[in-house]
Structure formats: C-alpha cells, structure tokens
Amino acid sequence: MNFSKEIIQWYFQNKRDLPWRKTKDPYRIWLSEIMLQQTRVAQGLPYYEKFTEVFPTVYDLAKAEESQVLKLWQGLGYYSRARNLHYTAKDIVNNYNGEFPSSYSALLKLKGVGDYTASAIASICFDEIAPVVDGNVYRVLARYFDVDLPINSTEGIKMFKKLAFEVIDHDDPANFNQAIMEFGAVQCKPQSPYCIICPLASSCLGLKNQHVTTLPVKLKKTKVKNRWFNYIVIVSNQEETLLEERKGKGIWQGLYQFPLVETDKAVDDIEQHQLEIEEMIALKDVSITQFNQKPIIHKLSHQHLHTTFWVVETTNSLKNGIPLQEIRKYPVPILIGNFIEAFDF
C-alpha cells in the first residue's frame, strides 16, 4: 500500500470545506495556522473570518493597533500568539517588502513561526517538501507504524519528524500535508477512531497489534499551579469603572482587567485586605460586595485561577475612570469578558 497516495485520495473525498483550503496566499495560510494552534477548527473559524474581514492583507494587520488585534483575538487564548502575529506582520511589511519568505528555513526566522508553521506555509504555498508534524500527524504516524516513543520527548520529536519526511508525497507535498492533518482530525480521531472504515486499516500496525487506544504516548504534563484572583470592580455614580493593563511577561500581557488582589488561598472576607484595596483604587471607606459566592475556576494550560469578583459602589469620582458604556471596547481575557456580560454594565 502507498501510504501517501491513500491519504491524499481519502482527503480529496472527505476534506472539510474550509476557507484557507481555497488559497495559496501565505498571509492567509499563516493566519490560519497560527490561529489553529491549540484551537479546534470550529472555534478558530469565526476568528479567521473576522480577522480576514478586518485585516484582508498583511499591510492592514501591520498598521493596526495592538489593542485592536488583541480585542479581535479575545476568547482564543494563548495571547502571545496574537502579539507575535502583529509583530511579524510589521516585520514582513518593514523588512520583507510585504512578501512572505518562500522557504522553510527563511520562514523559521519569523517571530512566532516554528517548525510546524514554517512547514505548512512552505509546502502549501511554495510546494517545498517540508512535512508538517502537529498533534494530528503524531497520532496518525504513531498508530500506523505502532510507535510508542513519547511525542513530547526530544527523541520522539526527532523520530517522528524523520518518519514524516519518509512518508511525505514528494510530488504533492501541499495536499499530503493537509491530508494527513485532516485524516488525524476526522478519521484517526483521539477517541473512537473510525478503524472499521479506515482505508489504511489493512496495513496499520497499531490496529494489528491492538495498540490504537494507547497511542500516541505522551509524557505527563507539568504540575498545575493554583492561584487565587480577587478582582475589584468599581462602579461609580458617574457610571465609570477602573481597568488596568496587564504588564510584564505573565499571562494576558497587554490585556485589561479590573484591579486585582492576588492571595495565596481563597478569601471569604475581602475586608481583611481593605487597606490594600483602598490604596490601589485611591478610594477611602469603601464597602465591598461579593458578586459570585463560589470562586470561578478558570483553567489555563498550567494554571487554575480561582476567581472571585468583588463589587465596590462609590459616589466619588474616579481618577482615570472609564465610562461603563466603553468597557467592551477594551481587549480583556475571556474570564473578564464573561463577567462583563454577566454583570451587564
């Protein structure tokens, strides 16, 4: 059996109708690949359509304000992707005359572009023999060849890249790469793969050896860190509130949030932190009401945020206050965005 030809044939018969499959424009391929990192297609598709509507070319993205990019990205998570996207758009316009590099090695020099994204752009847009290896590809290769090396180990990453080079179709690398990714997403799914009707079933070693459900192998994740966030939500009689921009290199850099008090455990009575809060928001003798009785647990890849919102109503005017009707213009983490909708300012 010719593995690559079977995969491509399956792809032509079963591929989903997605907008980035109808173009070889490097800008749009790059945009889709960055968006779909750690994001399901169903979730990423509306964002892709909105981005290409607002920023139809790399020039449009490059001249945008970062806050506008982050606002459109709101809800996709992993916000460093959006910041890198914006930085790279400006880099391409300023240093590459608006043209994407046309080779895998040159694409790797762009910020936020790693092996996978460089391989996808080089193969799909420029027909370079550059195999992609993402989660779907790892799964297909691990099962088909019955490989139990951890896919997130140094040895495993090297071995699967080598294996991908061996099976890629040299005559049609663009369709092969899209085919094997689609095959992993639709046919050789993580749970309940369609082995009975799989065109590769007769030669799949994982199926033959009854290892499909245990492959691919992955090393255990980093231990999850628990953090306790207490957001102070100011509502003044002048219908204003306070937001602050998150600085530094931690989570949500460049996004906005309500003033934050982080504690080392859950807080039942925020008044024990009242002096700290009054200094933070420059208001005295405030009364604070707890909005959610149970902490909202917001799960990130390596962190669980146990979050409580505390509402402060005041008759005082706010220094640097933001009109409540403008609060939705600011890019915020989805955790804050959900609260804004629930509170209904």
UniProtKB/TrEMBL annotation:
InterPro entries named among the record's database cross-references: A/G_AdeGlyc_MutY, DNA_glycosylase, HhH-GPD_domain, HhH_base_excis_C, HhH_motif, MIG/MutY, MutY_C, NUDIX_hydrolase-like_dom_sf
Keyword Transmembrane helix in record: no
Keywords attached to this entry: 4Fe-4S, DNA damage, DNA repair, Glycosidase, Hydrolase, Iron, Iron-sulfur, Metal-binding
Ranges that cross the membrane: none
Domain HhH-GPD: 35-186
The keyword Phosphoprotein appears for this protein: no
Pfam families: HHH (PF00633), HhH-GPD (PF00730), NUDIX_4 (PF14815)
Catalytic activities: Hydrolyzes free adenine bases from 7,8-dihydro-8-oxoguanine:adenine mismatched double-stranded DNA, leaving an apurinic site
EC number: 3.2.2.31
Needed co-factor(s): [4Fe-4S] cluster
Signal peptide annotation: none
Comment on bound cofactor: Binds 1 [4Fe-4S] cluster.
Function: Adenine glycosylase active on G-A mispairs. MutY also corrects error-prone DNA synthesis past GO lesions which are due to the oxidatively damaged form of guanine: 7,8-dihydro-8-oxoguanine (8-oxo-dGTP).
PANTHER family linked: ADENINE DNA GLYCOSYLASE
Family: Belongs to the Nth/MutY family.
Protein's UniProt name: Adenine DNA glycosylase
Organism of derivation: Kordia aestuariivivens
